[in-house]
Amino acid sequence: MVRKRKKGKSKRKPRLDSVEKPEENIEPLKPAFHKPTIICIGEYPIKILLRGSLVEKKDEPLPIFIDKFSEDIAEWSQSSLNPDSILGLDLNIDTHFWFQVLPSIENDGTFIARLKDKPIDNLRGAVIVSSLWDGVGSGLLPALISQFKEWNTNTVAFGVLPSQMQVSDVHFNAFSSIGICVSQGFAS
Fold first, then answer.
1. Residue 136 gets which letter from DSSP?
2. How far is CA 31 from CA 13, 25, 41, 92, in A?
3. What pTM was computed for the model?
4. Per residue in 4-27, is it b (16+ CB within 10 Å) or e — as a string?
5. What pLDDT score was predicted for residue 188?
6. Looking at the predicted structure, is the pLDDT value of residue 1 above 80?
């Protein structure tokens, strides 16, 4: 059987010595799972995560620890944290109740701008762990979920609830924070 050459094709034959074996250049495919970063809000979850080995893992995304003051977080970590992991509100406001924190975050864009400067730009997602009994955690949770939704970042949030033994104002913070999240459609 004789094949006719089509017009416009090169008459050159490929050289056999320049052809490489396909199996020599193929590297095994590595799964491209983008790990979410962990954002930890409040003294209680921060101190728990600092006890573990999460901070020491180099191949993981950098966790972000948020509380009222950056200096407090640095002190709890005993200088074992990368400064890029620390983000304090660093506002001169009372932070006992959620309604003192949430408006400050929403009305003043400096905290969100500092969060945006953290190495979270190319995140596939964020896992937020927040203590909901204090004003910082209960006020920040709805604000951060809203911001990540605006940035099209998938978010999963875990709220640590107060115990029955704690005073009623911390229960107010926790249930208000959950209520805000549900009313804004974040719990779907």
1. H
2. 38, 18, 31, 46
3. 0.73
4. eeeeeeeeeeeeeeeeeeeeeeee
5. 47
6. no
